[in-house]
Design brief:
- The protein is of the alpha+beta class.
- It has one domain (about 10-195): CheC-like (Chemotaxis protein chec).
- It has 6 helices and 8 strands; from the N terminus they run αββαββααββαββα.
- Strands 1, 2, 3, 4, 5, 6, 7 and 8 form an 8-stranded antiparallel β-sheet that branches.
- Helix 1 (about 10-30) crosses helix 4, helix 2 (about 50-55) crosses helix 5 (about 145-150) and helix 3 (about 85-95) crosses helix 4 (about 100-130).
- The longest helix is centred in the middle third of the chain and has 27 residues, at about 100-130.
- The two termini are about 20 Å apart.
Length: about 200
């Protein structure tokens, strides 16, 4: 059974959930980056398939992404993704120094994604009354399309249609650091979330 198009009230509710969750994620990222300001875009709600979701990250552009499976009241994946060059800038900021050690760089971004995802899911959990738990993060580099396919492949159910809650972030740093936070949820989770929100 396909997910009917959300009403305006449902879209507003999903955007508000995204805004709250990603706002807490941005605050966590700000603390990790030494208190630098992290701004968020207006969240978007997209009913899409994996190929369209890849377009959100720039299609075949090179990127670094870390994702965590979500369990509890919601089932899906949370993804933090950055263009490759900006991911490298974030790694240097997190480590406090440049390094060529790939294991160190990977560990820094994976841990950041874990903290960011935990902050986001904790905020959504408080809003809904659900206990939401992230898995151990998976970190990969490569073309955005392949990264999104790998992340969406972790979502249970029919991955041909998923619901993506997306917000872009921009951190005040030199060089700049910007990227995206994506919540990719299975259709039944969206139904349950809307019911929980009473819309």
């Amino acid at each position: 059974m396909s997910l009917p198009l959300p009403s305006d009230a449902q879209l507003d509710a999903l955007r508000e959930v995204t805004n709250i969750g990603c706002g807490h994620a941005a605050n966590a990222l700000s603390r990790l980056m030494g208190g630098r300001q992290v701004d968020l875009s207006v969240p978007r709600v997209l009913l899409t398939g994996p190929s369209d979701a890849a377009g959100l990250l720039g299609g075949d552009a090179q990127a670094v992404a870390a994702w965590l499976a979500i369990s509890g009241g919601l089932k899906g994946v949370m993804l933090m993704a950055l263009p490759l060059a900006e991911g490298q800038a974030l790694e240097s900021l997190l480590l406090g120094r440049p390094t060529s050690e790939q294991a160190e760089r990977d560990s820094a971004v994976a841990e950041a994604a874990n903290i960011v995802a935990s902050a986001c899911l904790s905020a959504i959990g408080k809003l809904t009354g659900w206990k939401l738990m992230p898995s151990v993060p998976t970190l990969r580099r490569g073309g955005a399309r392949a990264l999104v396919d790998a992340a969406v492949g972790q979502v249970d159910g029919d991955a041909s249609r998923v619901v993506v809650l997306e917000a872009r972030f921009m951190a005040a740093a030199a060089p700049p650091v910007s990227g995206q936070l994506l919540l990719v949820l299975e259709r039944e989770s969206i139904r349950a979330l809307l019911a929980r929100l009473g819309v």
